[in-house]
């Protein structure tokens, strides 16, 4: 995958996005204990994403940008070594599992029981993710917004 200038089709974080996230982590730490916890969670996610293989890393970075834009009140943290985002009660709402974690052929965007995605007696809680596109970004945004509604 090659880097592109558009943030919706990029294969990873731009230098500006990386700088902004570091600045935000510093701001959160400056806010005190609760902010420091959120900053530590953000740093843990960024560190975990940095360890991924390039294709998984590119997907995880796009998922991170999309989730944090769609649901800024969710708290970033790692969960079983995966990037995840928790609600105010500390319950995981959405997570990203890279394909390399368990040697799967695709990465996954998944939702836990704290997500408000209920639809009758049967609904999907995980989605295979192989490539990022504007259509994928739109769908993930819709799912995350529904999950926190």
Automatic annotation (TrEMBL):
Gene3D superfamilies: 3.90.1150.200. Residues 15-37 have a biased composition (Basic and acidic residues). Residues 1-12 have a biased composition (Polar residues). Residues 1-37 are annotated as: Disordered. This is YdhG-like domain-containing protein.
């Amino acid at each position: 995958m090659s880097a592109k200038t558009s943030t919706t089709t990029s294969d990873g974080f731009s230098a500006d996005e990386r700088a902004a996230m570091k600045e935000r982590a510093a701001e959160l730490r400056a806010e005190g204990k609760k902010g420091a916890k959120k900053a530590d969670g953000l740093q843990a996610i960024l560190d975990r994403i940095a360890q991924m293989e390039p294709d998984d890393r590119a997907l995880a970075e796009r998922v991170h940008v999309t989730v944090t834009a769609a649901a800024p009140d969710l708290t970033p943290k790692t969960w079983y070594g995966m990037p995840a985002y928790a609600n105010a009660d500390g319950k995981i709402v959405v997570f990203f599992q890279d394909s390399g974690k368990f040697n799967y052929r695709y990465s996954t965007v998944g939702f836990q029981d704290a997500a408000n995605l209920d639809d009758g007696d049967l609904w999907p809680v995980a989605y295979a993710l192989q490539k990022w596109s504007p259509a994928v970004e739109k769908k993930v945004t819709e799912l995350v917004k529904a999950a926190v509604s």
